[in-house]
């Protein structure tokens, strides 16, 4: 027990050091000591920003009134509205959950017909009127007047990238020197200049802005998470997917074109703020869990999906949030996909091994060494995908079947007590892939990302 605690302490200290390095990158004039709260990198980011606020997010009023009329309430991850009716008037109550530790500008002057009380980090709103519209309008106006900065954190080559107002502001120190996927889809070799140029090109093409394409069905990579989920949705292997989009945060959808649209070219998103135009596009075919704050909370997203009536739910989580995976297992019918694993720690790899259904190797040494041997199927060798459970295989099988029906016929009867590797030499056609029974996993390739982190 003492040895276990000692190991956990070492992991937490290492995590805090990495978090401090990143915060120093963002805020070079501030000190970040060793007494930082024991939380992961993504949470440290969310708890540390104090930016001026300029970005506006409008409530979808037609959807709000429709839900109020049907249920008497309107509920999202960051706002709850309830309506009471008596003989004389309608009374509206609201709870607003602001983005943590972010400076927010509230409407001025105050609205006389609206009561606002701040308590325990939440804002309680109350107003009344002679009609439903009159009762709700002050609350809607107040929430629509909350502004956030246009601020996003993503990652490439093992380093964080900060994007503000459509521009690459800061780049951490690239830790990867080579990646076969980046060689095909991004910029090589990795440097501050190549990473900046790559993201600036993507921004011009429509990411991190209102011109974002959110619907597409064509594949971008062979065995990407969005490709797998889109095919699984189309084949009815799952009922819904809980994923992440920049400018939106957690998204629930049952449409294959939405999963592929937001995930095809997107690297990991670790922090984001609302972008109105992207949300408006997605709300046509998806459920935006946090429409006013764009929070990223996949566990709450899975719970909302369950409450919405979906039974079989696939959920994507970044490797750095793997310690939350056990909470996902408490929600019946969920399948966990662990992504963006480059640079994760041994403890996080252990959580993925124990609780994930599919894990992407990315540039992670710990995923290959710890998760790989526990998988029964490996797809690819350079950037391997490890399938750990039958539920994971169900999702992966839809993608395999579409790429090559002959391969599917050969692997659909896998013995789950054995080890298999579906391999092909990049970038030759998938028809050259084959089912290979092996003694142990992982099978290593000669074009892996390096150095593995």
Q: Would you write up a description of this structure?
A:
The protein has 453 residues and is of the alpha+beta class. The protein folds into three domains: 1-38; 58-145, no CATH class; 225-438, no CATH class. The chain contains 15 helices and 21 strands. It has helices at residues 2-26, 41-46, 61-71, 132-144, 180-185, 192-205, 225-234, 256-263, 276-282, 298-307, 325-328, 346-355, 365-371, 390-403, 405-411, and strands at residues 55-56, 73-75, 79-85, 90-96, 114-119, 122-129, 147-148, 151-156, 159-164, 167-171, 240-245, 249-253, 269-271, 287-288, 313-318, 334-339, 358-360, 377-379, 385-387, 419-423, 434-438. The strands form four sheets. It has a ten-stranded mixed sheet with strand order 14-12-11-15-16-17-19-18-20-21, with helices on both faces. A five-stranded antiparallel sheet has the order 2-3-4-6-5. Helix 11 (325-328) links the parallel strand 15 (313-318) and strand 16 (334-339). Helix 7 packs antiparallel against helix 8 (256-263), helix 7 packs across helix 14 and helix 12 crosses helix 13. The longest helix is centred in the N-terminal third of the chain and has 25 residues, at 2-26. The relative contact order is 0.09.
Query: pLDDT below 50 for ≥5 consecutive residues: which ranges?
Result: 14-57, 425-433
Please give the alpha-carbon distance between the first and last residues: 28 Å
The proportion of residues in beta strands is 15-25%
Q: What is the residue-mean pLDDT, rounded to a whole number?
A: 82
Radius of gyration: 23 Å
Order of the strands making up the biggest sheet: 14-12-11-15-16-17-19-18-20-21
Q: Per the principal axes of the C-alpha atoms, what is the gross shape?
A: globular
Give the % helix: 25-40%
Q: How many DSSP helices?
A: 15
State the domain count.
3
Largest sheet: 10 strands, mixed
Number of strands: 21
Strand-pairing-aware structural class? alpha+beta
């Amino acid at each position: 027990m003492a040895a276990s605690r000692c190991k956990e302490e070492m992991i937490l200290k290492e995590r805090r050091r990495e978090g401090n390095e990143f915060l120093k990158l963002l805020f070079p004039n501030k000190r970040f000591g060793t007494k930082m709260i024991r939380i992961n990198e993504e949470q440290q980011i969310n708890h540390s920003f104090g930016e001026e606020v300029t970005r506006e997010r409008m409530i979808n009023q037609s959807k709000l009134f429709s839900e109020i009329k049907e249920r008497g309430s309107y509920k999202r991850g960051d706002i709850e509205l309830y309506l009471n009716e008596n003989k004389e008037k309608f009374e509206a109550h609201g709870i607003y959950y602001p983005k943590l530790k972010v400076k927010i500008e509230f409407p001025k002057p105050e609205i006389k017909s609206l009561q606002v009380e701040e308590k325990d980090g939440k804002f309680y709103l109350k107003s009344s009127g002679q009609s439903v519209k009159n009762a709700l309008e002050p609350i809607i106006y107040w929430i629509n007047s909350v502004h956030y900065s246009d601020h996003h954190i993503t990652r490439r080559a093992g380093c964080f990238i900060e994007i503000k107002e459509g521009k690459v502001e800061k780049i951490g120190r690239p830790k990867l020197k080579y990646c076969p996927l980046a060689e095909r889809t991004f910029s090589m070799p990795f440097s501050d200049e190549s990473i900046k140029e790559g993201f600036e090109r993507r921004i011009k093409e429509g990411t991190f802005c209102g011109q974002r394409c959110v619907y597409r069905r064509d594949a971008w990579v062979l065995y990407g998470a969005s490709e797998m989920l889109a095919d699984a949705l189309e084949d009815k292997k799952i009922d819904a997917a809980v994923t992440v989009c920049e400018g939106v945060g957690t998204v629930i959808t049952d449409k294959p074109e939405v999963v592929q649209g937001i995930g095809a070219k997107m690297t990991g998103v670790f922090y984001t703020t609302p972008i109105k135009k992207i949300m408006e596009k997605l709300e046509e075919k998806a459920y935006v869990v946090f429409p006013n704050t764009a929070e990223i909370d996949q566990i709450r997203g899975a719970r909302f999906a369950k409450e919405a009536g979906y039974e079989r739910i696939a959920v994507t989580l970044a490797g750095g949030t793997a310690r939350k995976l056990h909470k996902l297992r408490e929600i019946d019918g969920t399948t966990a996909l662990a992504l963006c694993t480059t640079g994760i720690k041994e403890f996080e790899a252990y959580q993925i091994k124990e609780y994930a259904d599919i894990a992407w190797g990315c540039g992670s040494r710990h995923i290959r060494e710890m998760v790989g041997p526990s998988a029964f199927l490996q797809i690819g060798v350079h950037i391997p995908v490890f399938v750990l459970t039958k539920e994971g295989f169900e999702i992966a099988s839809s993608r395999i079947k579409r790429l090559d029906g002959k391969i599917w016929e050969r692997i659909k009867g896998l013995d789950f007590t054995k080890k298999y590797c579906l391999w092909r030499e990049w970038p030759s056609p998938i028809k050259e892939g084959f089912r290979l029974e092996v003694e142990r996993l992982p099978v290593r390739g000669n074009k892996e990302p390096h150095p593995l982190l």
